[in-house]
Amino acid sequence: MTQRMPKIPVPEFAAAALPEAARGIALAISGGADSMALLAAARARAGDDPRLGAAWVLHVDHGLRPGSAAAARTVVALAESLGFRARILEIADRPPEQGSIEAWARARRYALLEGAMAELGLDLLLTAHHRDDQAETVALALMRGAQAGGLAGMAPLRPLSSAGRLLGRPFLDQSRARLADYLRGTGLHAIDDESNRHLGPRRNLIRHLVLESATGPSVDRLLDLGRRAAAAEARLRRWAEARLDPPGSAAYARASARAGDLATLPIAFRGALVRALLHRLGRSELAPGRRALAALDRDRTVELARDCHLHRQGDRLLLVVRRDAPAATVTRLEIDERVRPLPQGGGLQLRTVADGEEFEPGLRRQPLPRDRLDGPLTLRTVERDERFRPFGMDGRRRATDLLREAGLDADRRAGFLAVADDRGILWLPGIRAAERCRCRRHDRRLLLELLD
């Protein structure tokens, strides 16, 4: 039996976050107070917008804390009691030993949410980001030294992917306190996540030590800064759009803009030009970072994604998107001595090294310490900005940079398959192995061999 919501004032949904063109809606519900308020409000407003009543509830279990599976079942049971269809999405792999766990979790979370949306035929994802989250976002951007685009904060609606799916934030005008009051009035209970009280994540630090401090900047002042930055970004966008060349058509989607003397063009203006080009070609979900924009000073071509490249041609910037780019590939490698063809040429064989067997390692032959691998071996495409520590080198390198240095053009880099485990890349066949491939004297070994 569907649980009824009490008749109490329901937080307003920002109209911009619910475009009429959206056909199917997904609600991202973590179980925290904000998302539970979104769940309750969506049920209460289903009479005004039937799409909300027909929405799917998607809960991502990150597996990062004890009891997460039980919490996921609780969220789904509650959603179903309110008449929603619900699904649990589990992150199967483990976080990396280095880097930001929060960034890793966010990337995995949105990948799972998008995959479920594609499967269910949904095109709008609603999240419970609110007014206080917006202030935290502006404060974080200030700490990073962001330009106007970053200081503008979160938009009520933005592209989620190049497939046309959207991300809506209907609560950006609602405060955390307002949503908490509403949730109490519904009688529903949130799941307490103690990690929100830890000061390790930078967003938690901003929340507890800056925004809740009597001497820190107020939420209102940060939001005012965000509005001013959004207005500045809008002016930059108009400047950039005025410099776009007329659209053309070709086997590759192309868009170009007049950049003038790029060396004297500030990063903020470069970013506006590139964002305008990305918007024209339907790739607004890509956000070029400061490093990519600065790289235009030395590189004629900058890779923004596997299928998307920015070229500097005289006084113009040219963005090229491959419409026929190869899809991401992941194939599990079995120890069966079968030769698997590689798109970059040749074939790959994986076998066990017998006790006492001797061989000469090299670019085409790579041993692996069998007992120190992390999860199953896979043959997969290289992810954008993916890094690893190459064998015998200090520090981590971007895999695409190593492929470029090896002389591979953009097309060959796009389809290149690497050998990896759950922690990341182990071997770029024929180019470079990871330091983790180093074998010790008594290790049981596997052998990867690149064959003609």
Order of adjacent strands in the largest pleated sheet: 3-2-1-4-6-5
End-to-end span in angstroms? Answer: 64 Å
- How much strand? 15-25%
The major pleated sheet works out as: 6 strands, mixed
Number of β-strand runs: 21
CATH architecture of the largest domain: 3-Layer(aba) Sandwich
Decide which structural class fits the backbone: alpha+beta
CATH-level-4 superfamily name of the largest domain:
HUPs
Summed over residues and divided by their number, the pLDDT gives a mean of 82
Ranges where pLDDT stays below 50 over 5 or more residues in a row are: none
Q: Quickly name the level 1 CATH class of the largest domain.
A: Alpha Beta
**How many domain units?**
3
Please provide a written account of the structure.
The chain is of the alpha+beta class and 452 residues long. The chain is 32% helix and 20% strand. It has three domains: 205 residues, 3-Layer(aba) Sandwich (Rossmann fold); 78 residues, no CATH class; 122 residues, no CATH class. A six-stranded mixed beta sheet has the order 3-2-1-4-6-5, with helices on both faces. The protein has a five-stranded antiparallel beta sheet with strand order 11-15-18-19-20, covered by helices on one side. A hairpin with a 2-residue loop joins β8 and β9. α1 crosses α7 and α9 crosses α10. The model has no long low-confidence stretch (mean pLDDT 82).
